[in-house]
Amino acid sequence: MTNLPSEPEFEQAYKELSSTLENSSLFEKNPEYKTALAVSAIPERIIQFRVVWEDDKGQLQVNRGYRVQFNSALGPYKGGLRFHPTVNLSVLKFLGFEQIFKNALTGLNMGGGKGGADFDPKGKSDNEIRRFCQSFMSELGKHIGGNIDVPEIAGDIGVGGREIGYLFGQYKKQTKTWEGVLTGKGGAWGGSLIRPEATGYGCVYYVDHMIKYASGGKDSFAGKKVTISGSGNVAQFAALKVIELGGTVVSLSDSKGSIIATEGKGITPDMINIIADLKLKRKALADIVSTKDFSEVKYVEGARPWTHVGNVDVALPSATQNEVSGEEAEALIKAGCRFIAEGSNMGCTQEAIDAFEKTRSEKGADALWYAPGKAANAGGVAVSGLEMAQNSARIKWTSEEVDAKLKDIMKNCFENCLNTAKEYITPKEGEHPSLVAGANIAGAVKVFKAMHDQGDWWH
């Protein structure tokens, strides 16, 4: 029995990590890490506040704002902001908990956190969004700073370049300081090149290493059919990178439905550019599917793409949490999918992960191979860390420099997950190592060691 409220999203994230650690040899070799896990599961601090703002009719509106400062063992709290009606403490604790270990896997000095509000930007004017952001930062700004907590403002739901501009401007007014307190900033005022692309690009780079490892270096994205969900930054840039590497993108989606490419060349860069413009206007895919530019795709209303794309080679869930169910996982396995990597955070349900790991164990080298979001989508926060470094040094790297660093980070992340999995869970003959186990264990060990050294737990 507990007096705590039910937090299903956070409980799912915790169970996913803890069960992996328990089913490895980690606790056998280091039983004291059970204590570390229990300590790490409770945030260092949770800040909750009201956000009062005025709409265009002059009427008062109020929302709930949050910041979960989860763990600072490896550096300042680092993690995004989400503006969406579904935001609550359970969602933010799950995202912040995942962020701790994701940030550890980048190799950069960043702790884990997450924040946001139950505010819906859809249907709001620019002035309403500005007034909301200024009110939100008036409270949040008391609790953050370049060496304390650096929210990430790019790529999450409801928050983009417009919002970060308003938030940063308000922080500057109330603190009288210009510092790298937010990442995802505009390119002309401290933002890093490649940041909007980083999560999608990084996910594709990670899968490219999976493909090369599985094929002994003989295969690549060239000729692969790739199904992607979502149509925001992550999905858009993942799709563009897949196309650049010779793959064919057969789907994108939003909360109202999916577009599925019919036989032919698949979804094109021109179509993706149209979708990007559409999403800046906060409109739905349904608004453009009847136009001539989309004559070679079909629209499936109210559905995710996984059971509608036919045979595919790669799946990249890139929309939101729990967007691949156990049933959809089985459908992807039957469709011959060989690789799945989460561009979104906790994109697969536990039932889906169990199905992927079961087939990996049973089918050996021919199985579908799964990569969790804390590894596969770490490219976004990695480039945010690079933005922090550029701000601190008052310099700006070229796109080529940032992209090269991103590629190195994703390569090191993959190899870390792979080698850690081999160390703590001995794979059977012909079986690919468990990347979910490798990611969870590698991230946890790094964080637990730092917490121990700093006296956050002891034995």
Automatic annotation (TrEMBL):
GO terms for cellular component: cytosol. NAD(+) binds at residues 199, 233. Gene3D superfamilies: Glutamate Dehydrogenase, chain A, domain 3 (1.10.285.10), Leucine Dehydrogenase, chain A, domain 1 (3.40.50.10860), NAD(P)-binding Rossmann-like Domain (3.40.50.720). The active site is at 114 (proton donor). Keywords: NAD, NADP, Nucleotide-binding, Oxidoreductase. Belongs to the Glu/Leu/Phe/Val dehydrogenases family. This is Glutamate dehydrogenase. It comes from Lithohypha guttulata. The lineage of its organism: Eukaryota, Fungi, Dikarya, Ascomycota, Pezizomycotina. The gene is GDH3.
